[in-house]
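Board notes, transcribed. Complex of a protein with zinc ion.
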Amino acid sequence: MILVLLGPPGAGKGTQGEILAERLGIPKIATGDVLRAALRDGTEQGLAAKAYMDRGDLVPDAVILGIMKDVLLSPAAEKGAILDGVVRTVPQAEGLTIMLAELGRKVDRFLLFDVPEEELMQRLGGRVVCQGCQTPYKGLEPGTRCEKCGETLVRRKDDEPEAIRNRLKVYEAQTAPVVEWAKEKKMNLHKIDATGELNEITERAMKAIEEHTK
Ligand SMILES: [Zn+2]
């Protein structure tokens, strides 16, 4: 079973992805992780990615998909995988479906983790980090002393309300078309209410996964 997780920053995809991976006994594959592994192992695709990164360029989708393909061909992913952060744009969604077709596989479910914008702002905002040991804190004011090392807590530019709103806008602009694309292509897309308790969200996701699998 191949699952693709979609959702805005702060929706909890990563956390739920890990819980679901455990429940289903398949690996969670996140773009950042597999890219780092490919760079570390110096695979052919990893070296290709490194060449772009060394020039300060973004790694093209084709290279990322090549890395994904290698991972999906590994024994660990024989029964399936949960893909996190792999699909953010329509071209990535198309590229992934083509690559999977080459492997004789397909996306079984797109799971869209849905959280209202105000709640995302709350979840993502209010974060401060220690400028000494980098420990993140929630609900403390900048200028407070770190409990661990005594250094001052600061708010990063990325965590300012304006920056967060921008990140959400970028998500909306890129991923809303993916949802439309999935509907048009009659893909199995399930919108999951990702508010409330962690285990409630997991149960909703499991229900969406088990539907149609009988
Ligand atoms: Zn500290």
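The mean pLDDT is 92. The domain at 2-26+79-210 is CATH 3.40.50.300 (Rossmann fold).
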